[in-house]
Amino acid sequence: MQEGLPARVLVSVATYNEAGNVRELVAQIRAALPAAHLLVVDDNSPDGTGRIVDELGAADPHVHCLHRAGKLGLGTAIITAMRYAIANDYDAMINMDADFSHPPRYLPAMLEGMRRTDIVIGSRYVPGGGSEQWPLSRQFMSRGVNLLVRGLLRIPVHDASGGFRAYRVSKLRRVNFARMKSKGYSFQQEMLYRCLLAGATVGETPIIFANRKHGQSKVSLKETTRSLYTIVRLGVRAMLGVERRAARRDRAATDGPSPAD
Length: 261
Known about the structure:
Layout: E1 9-15, H1 19-32, E2 37-42, H2 49-59, E3 63-67, H3 74-87, E4 92-96, H4 107-112, E5 119-123, E6 130-132, H5 136-153, E7 165-168, H6 169-172, H7 187-197, E8 202-206, E9 208-210, H8 221-239, H9 242-255
Parallel strand pairs: 1-2, 1-4, 2-3, 5-8, 6-9
Antiparallel strand pairs: 4-7, 5-7
Helix pairs in contact: 1-2, 5-8
């Protein structure tokens, strides 16, 4: 049985050069979930994204910007937000992109889905979901990666690469972030896998994924190749049982000895 609808919710967004999006994004997030807090993790954006968020936060105590020294990667930004959610005792954390590919109007549905599962994925590949104005090459790559992940890691979802996710923070506490190998676009698949190893349940809710409104995509061929290598390597370790044994040791260390010990 799940723990019910989370009371304290943190919405997290990682940014790098999103000055053209961030004001409208913050406004839409605040309108969609007025009681939630918003954390922007900014990698010292040269275009002043972090400064804009600071200005918004000065007028709205629900908005906070965490400034990092430089461009340290999407994966580490999300882990930073997860650690922040844990340290500040939030019940749920919803992560989303800053480029409006994850429309804020879906935030209430993401939160509602947590009545049933520990992780809710905003999914393009379930009935009612889809994408618009997204290049066919990116769609082909996304579907291919999802097939690979389902085959290698046995993750029972349709959209394992989707970054629009709600996490129950009590489950994040059980994940050993030090074991994460991914820092780029394989991060989403690996984090989902490690949450499942930590005992989390997962579900999906449909979204229409939209191509970014402003700026350029930060996906590169080099990062795509590195991410595929990381997924295959993790899949081999999973099939050999290495990761599952490590997760059991981590859970034993976190939970302590059982009453029967």
